[in-house]
Write a structure and sequence with these properties.
The chain has helices spanning 6-10, 14-27, 54-68, 83-103, 162-166, 236-243, 284-289, 291-300, 367-380, and strands at residues 31-32, 109-121, 126-139, 148-161, 173-179, 184-200, 205-221, 263-270, 276-282, 307-308, 317-323, 329-342, 345-358. The protein is of the alpha+beta class.
Amino acid sequence: MYMKKIFKVLSVLIAPIVFVCTCLAGCKGTDVEIDNGEIMRDINVHPEQKPAYEEYSKQAVAEYKAVAERHKTADGEVDNEDPEVVRAASVAAAKLYAYACYNERTLDKYAFFSHQEGDTDLGSNGSAKALKQEYYLRVNESENTCGYRYHYTIKKVKESSGIVGTFKGLFESARLRFTDKTDLLYRFEGDNIRISDKYDETLSCNMLECDWATGKDWGKPDIVMKKSEFIPPEKIEEDIVNTAGEDNVTIRGNINILAENIVASANIVEEDEGGYFIIMTLNTEVANSDEASLKMLRRANSSDNCQWVGTEEDPGVIVVFRLWENGLFRFYNFKERWSGKINGFGGVADSLTTYYYSYSDRDCDMAKNLEMLEKAKEQKG
């Protein structure tokens, strides 16, 4: 059982307090019914879209294979222990991960769902087991469609003790952001957060649920849901560095994956049906020396001194991801450990997050969500 990132249970120490206190003052909006039941049905359906970095992903794999083919074991298998193979796999895996992240910028549509859970240990101040789920559906503006975004995040404390237990309710939150064709933002807030009894076989978890109400950010100008510009492969690391610490970075996992030697080792397996299964272990010493990585980690966790923790026997950061043969994510799994201090509380925490992706017409259909939004607008008046 992986411990949870002090991260979202504690990184949201101030924001939830402000949120809860404001709501106690009587800001609750109009209750609305939102159905998030049928999502991510097609995570195994091959994407029809052509990703922007497809040729570069294939080139990265070819470069790795050229090295791997020269280093075989006695039984003809790739010698994954050979230093040259390890180096080639590490470089290729880092590129593949970066390209998969940057592919999202130029897609017509996509959806992802993430499930995160674990424990946080604050020593004498207590501990907590927490869950976080995030669902993001985006349709970019094109000649044939308007741009839309449907995005919710729900956080739930399963168990707690000490000071965390005393104020457990302040560490839970639910928020939904909806951007419609008018490029306006409609926000919903949730309470009575609970764990559903129904186990989702596709997503391998029990879904979090809550009671939704309209929020205070209602009909405010939002970002336009358009495709972002294409960043040439040789400029991606520069973009990661330049945007580190901002709200909407492209790279996933709060890590500058293209930093020199940040990937300690990797293994790339070509799957029979096409695509790749990849495991990377990261060098936490390099990550803690990389300014961009630390900026992203510390912003994500509202800490000015947190850093990754890893040993030779137990790497602090392990990334497992699966790609379609064109380089798009099928899923990725990010396990990390870090220590830090937030508002006077110090501790060590591990997190395990799994993201699932879908690109199908069915999973990216906004019709049901738009109907819910129009109904909410009518109820709010």
